[in-house]
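hey team, just a heads up i'm posting the complex here instead of the shared drive bc the drive is being weird again. everything in one block, sequence lines first with there labels, then the predicted structure for the whole assembly after. its three chains so it's a bit long, scroll down
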Amino acid sequence: MKQTRAERVATAIAALVGLAIWAALPWFVGRGTIDILVFSGLYTIAGLGVSFLLGQCGIVSLAQSGFYGIGAYATAYGTTVLGLPIPVCIVMGIIFSGLIAAAVGIPVLRLSGYFLALATLALAIIAHVLFLEVEWLTGGTLGIGGIPRISLFGFVFNTPFRFYYLVWPCAFVVILLCHNLLNSRTGIALRAMRDAPDAAAVAGVKIESLKVRIFIFSAALGAFAGSLFAHYVSFISVDSFSIDRAISFLLIAVLGGVRSIAGTIAGALFVTAAPNYLSRFGDIHPILFAAILIVAVIFLPGGFGSVIATAWRASIRFVSRNAAAAR
Amino acid sequence: MTVTLLVQSILAGLTNGYVYGLIGLGIAVIFRGARIINAMQGDFALIGAVFAYLVANNLGLPMPVAVVAGVTAGGVTAFLVERLLVRPTAKRRGTDDSYLLVTLGGAFAVSAAVLLYFGRDSYVLPGIGGNKLVDIFDAAMRVHAIWLIVISTAVVLVLRWFYASTRLGQAMLASSIDPEGALTIGINVGLMRSFTFTLGGIVGGLAGVLVAPLINIHYEMGLLLTLKGFAAAILGGLTSPFGAIFGGVLLGLVESLAVVMISSGYKDVVAMSLLIVIMIAMPQGLFGRRGRQGG
Amino acid sequence: MTAQLEVRNVSHRFGGLEVLKGVTFDVVPGSITGLIGPNGAGKSTLFNIISGFLRPTAGDIVFRGEIATAHPIQRRSRDGLLRTFQTPRIFRDLTVWENLIVGCHMLGRTGVVAGLLAFPAVRRELKEAGERAEKILGEFELTGIRDVLAGEIPAGRQRMVELARAVMAGPTLLCLDEPSSGLSAAEVQGLMLTLRKLNQSGMTILLVSHDMELMGISDSIHALCFGEIIASGNLAYMQSSLRVREAYLGV
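-- predicted structure starts here --
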């Protein structure tokens, strides 16, 4: 959709202000909050993968927890056992994830609708079991510990405060990539494919192959987030890659509104913050998440994103109308 | 592999298979009656098992009462699901995805509620005939397991009769095959759909009560049961009650043999892989009528 | 002269039912060829086979001298064979302009990776497609609604959008499936004018329709009944043919 000049100016100002707030935030809040913000960053990256798949291709994927795990274990094993440098291991994790996504995606993505969704859930369960059973690689129930911290030119990202300034720039890069894709010919073709696949095929869009590529992209994002996660917490175990995680990622996409990047960030913030603040009431967050998923699906199909977008447009109109009146 | 081990494995597979078949049956009932894939079916079973346990343990009432309580709880839950989740989604013209997400949300909600109330422990329900075993070719099978098979078969036969020979059953089928046509001949389609869900819930609750003595109740069992039941249902053609049982038994046997030949940890991997393969290679199942592409 | 399209002995069965029986006819390059027939004659099946949505149980489709029977839809489009749909399949959540951009998707080479990394080629292709789109928007008188979501424009205009989108690909053979369905009388006239113009610029057109008035623009017509071609000729011949009248009025 074409933006008016007012919208473009407003967006630029908002972006700059947002960036300033982002940069300053960790100086004013406690360690616990920063930890939540770090996880929000990780989950934004993984969540964007799910969101892209759902919003641009109409595919409900519960498999992201599997790719998150592949990224985490690849880098954990690579650094602790094979002694390879961290960047190599992260790239290894992404490539490995992509290959697996291609291998399972090609047959599975021929399905559609609920068959496909349930197939991705089955994949997540398979991944979870494999993480548990393939002990030489994952350490089984014991997990893998002593994962080295990421360091850049001697600066070690070993506290939440420091890691915040690593994970979010990574998230910003991912957001930029997504933005690029959405505005390219391929992005338009994706939305066409979602709306009317037969007509898109006639227009030359290679449906099967495009779905697989987006699935690979989504898996790569999941693996990237997983690798960063491993180097943040330094110890990983199977519990982090369960079906709960798959649901969280899906919730981020659904809650955030699949056609909105800002919404996805809001969704990630919610999903990481809520369990933390609710933990004093016991294991209550899963049921809350489930209830919210239901409410969001029924009442708020556009998620946070549509709320944000509507509010944003309304405020721009308000401001520009008043500015015009003032002249 | 000794004969005993083989027989033991087959018996286990048969028993599990009937459980998957019952879950698949519930999915088939709801699909047949409402054209919706219910991702909560396994959780109806979980609720049935939980309520039976609560009535038997906390209230100290005899098992038959507990069983009835469990089955009823399943039916009531399903009724509420239809009213509170399915109807609002339908009113807002939900896509297939919306129903799936909503019922998935419901499934997670049930699982989370059980987690909240019971924690992460497992609980046991006594079975029919207590812990008595029966000797079959030197392999042991619980009396309860035999009863499970018998009762499941009875349920299938009752359902067949119900859909074929009763007015209510016919009306429920009609509302799903041709809702507008059914309306014109005076069938209350909305009510039929509620009945369908309730029936699915009853079957689910019964499945839960029957399986609980064999596998222990815990908060995560719902979703896995649903997926395995779904595999059974697809294999059976998604609309055929008899087919669901057959599919379930097939799944159970393959799973059991895999456990014996590979390792027990991979049991779920086998079942889930089989589900994926079935969906891709045989979406219409072995008994389905039309070619049915998923989605 | 090689035919633009040859349908060679195409047969098709669904289960036990034989829907097409040895259908054979040619589409002459540069012509407007029509295909008529009563409901159930097999027109849709034949159309889907020609456009690649169905593989026939027997027979071949030959496009510009090459056997295309097993070619996927995207390959046919790239080679110049495009189709429209009975109800206009436009991309509802995309603007009219974006709909047209997708229309020439097969002419571009950039993919997902190039899109992610914003290669200069992506921008260039989009610019070229955009220029082409502006031109065709003008030809079809759609410029006014270029930024409106395609799902929100009236049905007659949607048909035009679908047509314009097909033209974006520069097809040599355009296959139209009931293009006049849902159009008012005035819109049908407009459609006939547009099709004649496209044909004059060199495009071969294959037209499947019930609409006898629309068929007036055809150079030659084939009548399909119960899976077989029962008559071929021009419109006057069709209208006077006893066999054709029987097929439509009898049974």
